[in-house]
């Protein structure tokens, strides 16, 4: 049986964060608010929990799960190296609606799906989720919806789609316009925008001082 916590009230927010942290540590799923859309998440290093997340969404391993972090410095332990372009984009847009694709560290014991050695990383701009991430560490988080259905902009919309497959729902109020994050791939010869979302390609290009290509 899942439980919804109203994070707009201090007393229920504290209880919700404690319940969510306990659920993540127990290998269970939680729904949390972000600055783009609501997400469904779990411990990034628990492969069984990641499998449960994919099953809850009805999604295959061919669409690996991104990872949310609670600070700029967390990524240093997750990737092979942090290129200069990544540092520039992090300083300009984190926390916020930018996802960076980098080569993950080969020593990490995680299984996020068929990643081909890469990981998609983001630091969200939402106080509830940042507090949870700083408590439990990196989380595998995907949009809180069944595959092929609209992304959820409220906890209620997420629960209508995911039901009791999720143990804890953190209700942070409406997320606003359900705009996905922009995805920039930094694993090749030059940066590429794989998806244009909350941050425009023009903004990315301005920060990097070069015209960044948008993948067709």
From TrEMBL:
Its EC number is 2.7.7.87. PROSITE patterns: YRDC. One of its GO terms (molecular function) is L-threonylcarbamoyladenylate synthase. It is found in: Cytoplasm. It is an enzyme of class 2 (transferase). SUPFAM superfamilies: YrdC/RibB (SSF55821). One of its GO terms (biological process) is tRNA processing. Keywords: ATP-binding, Cytoplasm, Nucleotide-binding, Nucleotidyltransferase, Transferase, tRNA processing. One of its GO terms (cellular component) is cytoplasm. InterPro entries: DHBP_synth_RibB-like_a/b_dom (IPR017945), Sua5-like_dom (IPR006070), TC-AMP_synthase_SUA5 (IPR050156). Its main location: cytoplasm. Residues 14-199 form the YrdC-like domain. Belongs to the SUA5 family. This is L-threonylcarbamoyladenylate synthase. It comes from Longimycelium tulufanense. The lineage of its organism: Bacteria, Bacillati, Actinomycetota, Actinomycetes, Pseudonocardiales.
